[in-house]
Amino acid sequence: MKVLVINCGSSSLKYQVIDSETEHVLAKGLCERIGIDGVLTYQPAGQDKIKYEAAMPAHRQAVELVLKQLTDPQNGVLKSIDEIEAVGHRMVHGGEKFACSTLLDEEVLQTVEDLNDLAPLHNPPTLVGVRACKEILPDTPMVGVFDTAFHQTMPASAFIYALPYEYYEKYGMRRYGFHGTSHKFVAQRTAEIMGKKPEDVKVIVCHLGNGASISAVDGGKCVETSMGLTPLEGLIMGTRSGDIDPTCIEYIAHKEGITLEDTMQIINKKSGVLGISGVSSDFRDLEAAADEGNERAQLALDAFCHHVVKYIGSYIAVMNGVDAIVFTAGIGENAPLVRKAVLGHFKYMGLEVDPINDSIHGDECMISTADSKVKAYVIPTNEELAICRDTVEIVTKKTIEDVVKKVLG
Ligand code: ADP
Asked: Whose CB has fewer CB within 10 Å in the chain, the N or C terminal residue?
């Protein structure tokens, strides 16, 4: 089955076409500056990237251009758009309504829309993208894969905020967690590599990218994760503060004489390792600056690692043990120094880092020694493939159900 995977932002749309049988990416690309002017990037497998400007006043035009490009007689990878048998959409916030991926019919879209208050920056553009796709491909099944779904197994004791309970009841204020598609993919792959069933392992997944989160996965189920009502909670990130005393927000607003909205912008966009270092949100820049003796860059790196260690330690306690600690995403896959600094704190549990760690940049690899009691891995995440797999599963199930219904009358 050929699956179009779409990840919509407010002014961007990332896409991939994946052949679900081989799990090969046939083409991928990105639409940028939607609603401004429009730039399309397209890369068929094994060929050079093409980039050109094209008017994209709205997401609908972006989807149309992507489909036109994919079926282009010269460098397209599809003969016709009919070859796309399903579309998988990355959805950010499914609230408590979606604990797994689901077919996107109008009722589901309405339910997602009702959750817009929980993710005002992310859900509305996703819905615009889904609706544009549905208009252009009305007979193609669409599946929504939610960033929050995998974390829905967290017990109430882990997700409840110690606020008046009525806010949970009235406004759905609780911890949801994000990056769920990645945490699930990596946790499942960890069990596979270890030659064990997911039910039999305790895994801590460190998804360390510009946005960063950690999850504790016990027996294949998420029992804790570091992000909360929004992706702001938890670890120190590229530009997000992560955990801070909520009073800091009031204090900044008061001292700087700025609004709550402006303060939240600072907490989201100007904090994190960028805020501490004043250098960059990118770990490559921070490592380079620290090497040159920049103390604040070094402090940002140290603080980042410190928080990762704190979360891992607490999740070991939550799960009453751990079999594997796994690193993924931009920093997790590419920053051996961060992995080494973090894992060094778990020597007491018999975790021995293998020197191979120093040379691993983006490849799947065990980075603990063979006889290390607790294992450590680098496992590149692949959210698009995870979305494709879920999409195929849901669409196949629906097809079988339809056939059974028809046969039984
Ligand atoms: P997101 O999806 O949240 O935007 P990514 O998972 O793509 O983030 O991670 C991007 C981040 O990964 C960059 O900001 C940078 O900090 C880090 N990164 C990427 N490559 C390297 C590298 N070679 N060494 C260190 N850090 C890297």
From this structure: C
Residues 278, 286: Cα–Cα separation, whole Å = 10
Q: Find how far residue 70's CA is from the centre of its chain.
A: 25
- CB-based contacts of 107-116 (< 8 A; 24+ apart in sequence): 108/144, 112/144, 115/172
The alpha carbon of 285 and the centre of ligand 1 are apart by a number of angstroms equal to: 11
Write out residues with Cβ below 6 Å of ligand 1.
209-211, 238, 281-284, 329-331, 334-335
Residue carrying the six token digits 């490009």: 69
The answer to whether the predicted template modeling score (pTM) of the entire model surpasses 0.85 is yes
* Bridge partners (DSSP) listed for residue 40: 31, 52
pLDDT at 409 over 80: no
Confidence of residue 308 (pLDDT cuts 50, 70, 90): very high
Ligand 1 geometric centre to CA of 85 (Å): 33
Q: How confident is the model at residue 399 (pLDDT cuts 50, 70, 90)?
A: confident
Range of 329's domain? 196-378
* The total number of structural domains that make up the chain: 2
Q: Are residues 41 and 142 in the same domain?
A: yes
DSSP state of 99: S
Count of CB atoms within 10 A of residue 243's CB? 15
Which residues belong to the active site? Answer: 147
For residue 207, being part of any structural domain is answered with yes
In this structure, which residue's CA is closest to atom 22 in ligand 1? Answer: 334
The residue-averaged pLDDT of 30-48 equals 95
User: Are 8 and 69 in a shared domain?
Assistant: yes
Give mean pLDDT, residues 373-398. Answer: 96
Q: How many angstroms separate the Cα of 293 from the Cα of each of 172, 239, 285, 296, 333?
A: 46, 22, 13, 9, 25
Do 334 and 361 meet the contact criterion of CB atoms below 8 Å apart? yes
Tens digits of residue pLDDT in 185-223: 999 999 999 999 999 999 999 999 999 999 999 999 999
pLDDT bracket for residue 401 (50, 70, 90): confident
The CATH number of whichever domain residue 14 belongs to comes to 3.30.420.40
Q: Are residues 366 and 292 in the same domain?
A: yes
